[in-house]
Please model this.
Amino acid sequence: VFAECRRRTAALGDAAGALASGAFAGVATATLSTPFDYVKIQAQLRGAPPLRVLADALRARALFRGHAANCLREGVFTAVYLGAYDACRVALSGGGDRPPTRVVAAVAATTGALAWVANYPFDTVKSVQQSAPPSAPRAGLARAVRTLWRRGGVGAFYAGLAPSTARAVLVTTSRLVAYEHVRGWFDAPR
Model:
């Protein structure tokens, strides 16, 4: 999705096109990930098998609970992560050759950490929404934000940020290093 959006947003320029493409790719990702996130969180909280959680969610029409927050989360994350990574990659490579692996790793770690810090409040709101039992009344985005604010102000939106960001750095770095290597195999002369 990101690559296709980049192709279609070329007129916006490198940075703006990369950020817009990342945001759009994030919303597409959220559409796929929201049900999985909901089932995961419910299975963790209830200690129930995922298929039972899925059946309960379908009966309660709760499978997309937290979807707006997840769209914001994934949109912000992917815009910063892939958008900033792509812009840095182009700048560092001069638009030509791929940068060395150590540069890819450093840029991916940095953009991954920035992206996670930027999207973390939305992740927290999504988790609050998705942690409610399926039979509970829906807590909309604004209600979940108010709940978190009452729990601890701004700090409540960032609870658990450090370990989560450390994990994000590992995941985002390994993901883009692997991506660049695989991409190199396809770009290599035959």
In short: The chain has a mean pLDDT of 89. DSSP finds seven helices and no strands in the chain. The helical segments are 2-8, 14-46, 50-60, 67-93, 101-131, 141-152, 161-187.
